[in-house]
Amino acid sequence: MTVLLAFDLTQRRACVALTKETASHVRALQGQSAHGDEVFFTELDALLLEAGVAKEEIGVVAVAVGPGSFTGLRVSIAAAKGIATALGLRVLAVPSAFVEAQSLRAAKGTQASIVALASKQGSAWFTACVYRDGRWSALVEGSAGGVETLDRCATALKATGCSLPIALIHDEHLDATLLSAATRMSLVSEPARADGIALLSVAREFLDADESLDPMQLLPIYPREPEAVTIWNARHTGG
Length: 239
What we know:
Number of strands: 10
CATH class of the largest domain: Alpha Beta
Radius of gyration: 18 Å
CATH topology of the largest domain: Nucleotidyltransferase, domain 5
Number of helices: 7
Largest sheet: 5 strands, mixed
CATH architecture of the largest domain: 2-Layer Sandwich
Strand order of the largest sheet: 3-2-1-4-5
Number of domains: 2
Low-confidence stretches: none
Order of helices and strands: EEEHEHEHEEEHEHEHH
Structural class: alpha/beta
Distance between the termini: 55 Å
Strand content: 25-35%
CATH superfamily of the largest domain: ATPase, nucleotide binding domain
Shape: globular
């Protein structure tokens, strides 16, 4: 069986994980610098040692592509490209929304979820996720928005007749207006809980479906223009 290396630096619960044969190994990245490259590569080395895996044994690299932490995305995308290129491997680009949805499915059996990521000032990046035929898919592709976008996701999922309840997975920063709207839509509020086992599970789905990329095709999902870019543009356009 292919040794699968996967990592997620996009959310607060960052992790690096791998599967070898039937065994899975996960290391959580802790502390304020958990999304930085120094912590990541230290934990990656520790994970490989723990699992008894040499770098040359890695067969495929999977990475959560966001949206999420700007620093975490930069580090993880660069790391995935670097590792895969050095080893001559292809990569699996895993939407962070699917990882959140799978974590909840493993915990509670929920097969239809709206995942709200990168919450900020009354908006979030919403994805309507449904589990069918043994894998996750996006019934409504991820997009940034407010109550209207949330309602579009809920309506689409309810129209499929998928198993209820439908969950709204979100972090503690989701705006109260959106939480109130979710209650009116009969959505069940659930905390974000992404973990390494869920990441490996979704990555395996992508691998089985042969949805791999050349490392240079790998791109992060940014929900909105990074603040540094906004400030730079404002300074150079007189805005």
